[in-house]
Amino acid sequence: MFAFTIFILFVLFILYKLMLIVPMREVHVIERLGKFRTVLQPGFHFLIPFFDRVAYRHDTREQVLDVPPQSCISKDNIQLEVDGLVYLKVMDGKLASYGIEDYRLAAVNLAQTTMRSEIGKLTLSQTFSERDALNEAIVREIDKASDPWGIKMLRYEIKNISPSRHVIHTLEKQMEAERRKRAEITLASAEKEAMINLSQGERQEAINISEGQKQKRINEAQGTAQEIAIVANAQAESMAMVAKALAVNGGNEAMNMQLKEQFIEQVGEILQKADISVVPTELAKMEGFFEGIQQVSNTAAGSKGVRK
């Protein structure tokens, strides 16, 4: 009974060594008597017990490896702490097994050295602004070096670029100065635009005022000309009517009568409104005559008194 049990266990062990199921996400490297035999793809396979063995198992899915932070020196001699992520995939199980001892460790170390070399070609500002180009350059260089390892470098992503505290402080001052400069430029531009708009407004206002004054003078001149024309026409018509009236029999007598009436009315108005005594010319002459006689009489009387 014990021997039968041992026999059953031995048969099961042989069957276990004979059959091999490779999962979908892996490839297995098979060695026969210590020598590479084949790379088994996912599926069911048979092996020769005690001769064939699975030497390596590789995951064929895309793998993400963390690249630890490392110190780098930029082109403008600024120290940076840079870390990233490496995305790779096993393409050849044989080369990944025998081409290098540990392709994961080798990929991380190669990414570090390549990243240090590429950052040394860029200035600090370029490392921030040209991150995509930097990632592509690192992937291209790592892919060339890792081709004999049977792996494919898919992409590289920089996670953090951390300058030293002194550099950060300097950058903050520089950014503050740049913001202040931009604010001053914006303020100056706004003031310039305001002055330009104000001067243009004043210029337009002066033009409008001058145009208005010009139009006003033109209108006044046209009004004066029309007024003069109307008055002249009226005077011409009145003179024509007067001349026509004078041509009629008795027209001169009527004109003389009207002139006398107007003269009398005007003299009456002057006598009412004047502050001094106003007399007709004839009376003024007579008053002067009598005043002259009175002065002569007084002079004569004085002469007689002196003689006595």
Overall description:
- Pfam families: Band_7, Band_7_C.
- It is a single-pass membrane protein.
- It is found in: Membrane.
- There is one protein chain.
- By secondary structure, the chain is α+β, with helices and mostly antiparallel strands.
- Among the domains are: 16-58, no CATH class; 61-163, Tetrahydropterin Synthase, Chain A (2-Layer Sandwich); 165-200.
- It is 63% helix and 21% strand.
- The protein has helices at 2-18, 93-98, 103-119, 124-129, 131-146, 165-247, 251-273, 281-307; strands spanning 19-22, 26-32, 35-40, 43-46, 52-59, 63-73, 79-90, 151-163.
- The strands form three sheets. A three-stranded antiparallel β-sheet has the order 3-2-5.
Summarize it.
One of its GO terms (molecular function) is peptidase activity. With 308 residues, the protein is an alpha+beta fold.
Summary tags:
Stomatin_HflK_fam; FtsH protease regulator HflK; 63% helix; protease; 8 strands; three-stranded antiparallel β-sheet; alpha+beta; 308 residues; Band7/mec-2_domain; 8 helices
Q: How much helicity do the residues have?
A: 55-70%
| DSSP summary: helix tally | 8
CATH architecture title of the domain at 61-163: 2-Layer Sandwich
Q: How are strands sequenced across the largest beta sheet?
A: 3-2-5
Number of strands: 8
Whole-angstrom Rg: 64 Å
Query: Average pLDDT across residues?
Result: 79
